[in-house]
Amino acid sequence: MIGTQIHEFAKKLWPxxxxxxxxxxxxxxxQIQYHIAEVKIKSVPSGTAVFDWIIPREWYVNEAYIIxxxxxxxxxxxxxxLHLVGYSVPFTGEIDLAELKAHLYTLPDQKDAIPYIxxxxxxxxxxxxxxxxxxxxxEGSYFVKVDTKLFDGELNYGELILPGKSxxxxxxxxxxxxxxxxxxxxxxxxxxxxxxxxxxxxEALEYTYRIIFIPETIGSITYLSxxxxxxxxNIFAGFNVSCIGDNRSYSYxxxxxxxxxxxxxxxxxxxxxxxxxxxxxxxxxxxxxxRQYCAPGLDLPIASIMRTKFGEYPEYHTSxxxxxxxxxxxxxxxxxxxxxxxIEVIEKNRKYKIQVLGEPQLGKRGLYPAISSKxxxxxxxxxxxxxxxxxxxxxxxxxxxxxxxxxxxxxxxADIFLGHGLIKIND
Length: 427
Hints:
Blueprint: H1 2-13, H2 23-35, E1 40-45, E2 49-50, E3 53-54, E4 58-67, E5 73-74, E6 91-96, H3 97-101, E7 104-105, E8 127-128, H4 131-135, E9 141-151, E10 154-162, E11 169-175, H5 187-200, E12 208-214, H6 218-234, E13 235-241, E14 251-253, H7 261-273, E15 278-279, H8 282-285, H9 290-293, E16 302-306, H10 329-348, E17 351-354, H11 376-388, E18 391-395, H12 396-403, H13 411-419, E19 423-425
Parallel strand pairs: 7-8, 11-12, 11-13, 13-16, 14-15
Antiparallel strand pairs: 1-10, 2-3, 4-5, 4-9, 6-9, 10-12, 14-16, 17-18, 17-19
Helix pairs in contact: 1-5, 1-10, 5-10, 7-10
């Protein structure tokens, strides 16, 4: 089962300390590259201007922990990388409990969860712990060790370009900047890696695929600053991939436009995957890299299809977002198959034109039951209705919508009629 393979891959990525820069990003990209050799690892130096932003300094962590007055080591980064606030600056010293508490973060309403906290652009240090641990802290002097470095380095991302028959592009983006959390965000890069592996095995892609693995926000801004002209010219569909590994629900976040080809595909696939899928609002619910891809002046046709959306499940941005209870092989399987179906729609969506006048005689071609009965129409209804839509102007996706049927149930029918010369592709 592909979901099990993806889950095992996610387990390998789990312990890596990822942030928006650093060795954790590079190691993650190398792991992806192990599965897809064609992925290129790119770098952009710290201090580089990217639109209205600046590439930050690179962050390195050697170790970080707190020693309590009784000599117990707590908040040890080596035990759980969520303990350290992302991009914490160096600090070593003795401080009392009151001063320490100003640097501690908990979730009082989730007492057994370590929160995920970052401070990328304001220099500070801090630790995250469960609220139960926080309540057990004793008065006295604490030794704090934050052995980190911020230095002029680079931002890294991975890029995969798969050429197709057409220079028109399908764009897929996922992010690799979160440490040990499963749905947000190990599921995205793990699923996209296996989706890309599947695409590399297709001998003749109809379209070119541009697939990127990036740090969230600053990574998408960086990539756009380098490639936005060719992206605006060539990209006609695409998806931002995030939170695609749990097995609770399916959801969809539209592009800013809300009426792009990607939106049409997303809604169709989800409608036939989960009738109860949740549709979110661009204005109230966006929060990932779709903000950048759909920004005014860029306006790329990018939608997001997910399992349970970021911010909509209780374990989000905590240590409880794990690979046991939250992200499962079944959940990853469902996310993978949903994305694969969306890509197949793009690859197989054609306009067909019937090649005979009037209704074709299917019987002489072995496509109609030899014996006519009351059940005959039911057996051929979908085929006949499909032919009735083959006017050369209506796409397969629109035909599926008109017939209220999943588009993938029409693929074989179209191939059969093509094989008999009853229809032709009219793109």
